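Researcher: I've got a protein sequence and the SMILES for guanosine-5'-diphosphate. Could you write out the 3D structure of the bound complex as structure tokens? I'd like something to compare against our soaking experiments later this week.
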Amino acid sequence: MARTPLERSPQGRTFHHSRFSAEQIAAERDLGVTVCLPARECATTIGPIVETLLGLREQEVLDEVLVVDSNSRDGTAERARRAGATVRQETELLPEHGPVIGKGDAMWRALSVIDSEVVCFLDADNEDLRPHFATGLIGALCCEPGVCFAKAFYRRPLTPPGGEGGDAGGRVNRLMARPALALLYPELAWIRQPLAGEVAARLQTLEEVPFATGYGVEIAMLLDVCRSHGVEGIAQVDLDEHRHRHQTLSELEPMAATVLATIARRLRDEGRLQSSEELGAPLERPPLASLTVA
Ligand SMILES: Nc1nc2c(ncn2[C@@H]2O[C@H](COP(=O)(O)OP(=O)(O)O)[C@@H](O)[C@H]2O)c(=O)[nH]1
Ligand SMILES: [Mg+2]
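Model: Sure. Here is the predicted complex with guanosine-5'-diphosphate in place.
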């Protein structure tokens, strides 16, 4: 029987967050760590997130909490500052590059003001950010030799606690990103959530890859880091369950289109858009009318 790309693919390193405790990270790390939170209108969530992260700073898991605000009008910047974070406005970073085009652009500009060797990006709209989001990702970078990029994965229930459909969320991940990787980049087929926004990486690694400006940022970063460092440099960390807002199918459609376009651009650059065989498409029968009758 033909093997699927998934079975063929090499496995990278997968960890459960519980492997890395705050104490272990504090004792073992010799790298500076900045947690960066891109934020747009996050006044209701940013305070508790910053407090949780500053608790980890007390425990010496990280050194800096940096909020990159999108000129939010709801008071995000004030809340973050009051809670103790360093706050920068995205428009003040690398202003010579013109208007900021979404989250990926804000992340790219944030790198210009980070000095730590390790950067951990977390979402600022997480209503229940628990410390293991940071310790899991930072631990993979600081306690596992050779890891330069770590990506989160988690169960995303579509239903309230206790309901059915325990891992039915993350639809663009399941229906676009993962099948595309399995087909086109089978060395990354083991990545459970290619579009997860929670990552930690060496600053230097991130400084060496381009940043897509819109929804393509996560998949672009994963593909480009894999190209420059190989799967050996990549880890994924199980963060258990994560409940966050589910978007409607019509909101997900442009996201899926952007992910596809971001992958297609890389295939074109690699010269792989010429031949359909290389794209791994299944065998197609010729038009029946083209068959010559024997
Ligand atoms: N600085 C900045 N943050 C943004 C921008 N767009 C989104 N964010 C933040 O990035 C994080 C993830 O964005 P979100 O739209 O929630 O993406 P999703 O969770 O993948 O649907 C959240 O903390 C947002 O507030 C932006 O243009 N600039
Ligand atoms: Mg969100």
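Model: Residues 182 and 189 are 5 Å apart (CA to CA). The radius of gyration is 20 Å.
Researcher: Great, I'll pass this along to the crystallography team.
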